[in-house]
Amino acid sequence: MRRVYLDNSATTPTRPEVVEAMLPFFTEHFGNPSSVHSFGRDVSKYITESREQVAKLIGAKDSSEIIFTSGGTEADNLAIIGIALAQKNKGNHIITTQIEHHGVLHTCEYLKKYHGVEVTYLPVNEYGQICLQDLENAITDKTILITIMFANNEIGTIQPVHEIGNIARTKGVLFHTDAVQAIGSIPVNVQEMKIDMLSLSGHKFNGPKGVGALYVRKGVKLVPHMHGGAQERKRRGSTHNTTGIIGLGKAAELAMADLDEKQKKLTVLRDKLIKGIEERVPEIILNGHPTERLPQNVNVCFKYIEGESLLLNLDLQGIGASSGSACTSGSLDPSHVLLAIGLSHEVAHGSLRLTLGIYNTEEEIDYVLEVLPGVVEKLRQMSPLYNATK
Ligand SMILES: *Cc1c(COP(=O)(O)O)cnc(C)c1O
User: Fold this and answer.
1) Residue 13 CA to ligand 1 centre (angstroms)
2) Which pTM does this prediction carry?
3) 220 CB contacts (<8 Å, ≥6 apart)?
4) What residues in the chain have per-residue pLDDT under 50?
């Protein structure tokens, strides 16, 4: 059976060049990069190279501003908790949005519950963007951090990051952005955008899983959360994940070289998919911003049906996608992102997210467009909601 992977915002396949770069670090270059002998020094030099590649990809001034982590979630935790603890004497107020990834949302909830931190969750408009005036209004003299994602993982909406950076810098508040979905898909430059901290993750741009990084601008002090060795300039203890870090560096190098081409290719595929669905399936809603959206993201609500059934039926046809509604402990909770953009529970339940990657082809899009309308129609025929409309 034909298999088409359209869930690249969940994870991507590791590029063969990345795997190849990693392999010698399991065997030949096995040393601990913190060791003083030649076995360690030998590896340490490659770790430095990786750090430089990651720094380059995001336009950081200096590679010492990169802290390697176990992924995007850890980078989010380190940034947010690290600043909350470091700036305890300055204030206890954090500003974020209602549509963040759980790596940010649940971290803020933890700080609220156990550290008395006050959190403002900015609303978003129907396209998923915050209002800059809301942000300005929310800042008080107790505000220590603004954490707003670069681009949303569900609906693909890109925030006005430049403007957010300007506001934060003008008001003297630190700005962290979860850029996990943006890195390797659209240009990101921490200096131009006045970003103080940025989270990224290897497996979202064809690197390995279990490795990521937090950019921390020089001069920004945070309290580490992994206590132990002096790795990462005492900001994150534990022996370096050498294979992962080498893979992350290689993925960063390739992502930078291919950024323009990837952006162009995925935009064409995305627009073909959107147009094709709009032409073939009635009663749908395209979620996210019409133009300020990630090149890899398509998110559509199909009225009268449930995303979960849609996923299962597409899976039977070899198509891997995802939905905004997750079946948790017997109750169907629609995505917090879809609710935040103003969709009703009913409509939000019918969401489908298709996310593209570098290996997708036009032919695969044709296949999806061939299969999807029939699946939707079949499910609608079985839907009491749909039949009630006729
Ligand atoms: C995937 C993702 C994360 C989590 O990254 P991990 O490396 O899987 O921990 C965080 N934020 C966003 C926006 C993501 O898409």
Assistant:
1) 15
2) 0.97
3) 83, 174, 196, 197
4) 328-330
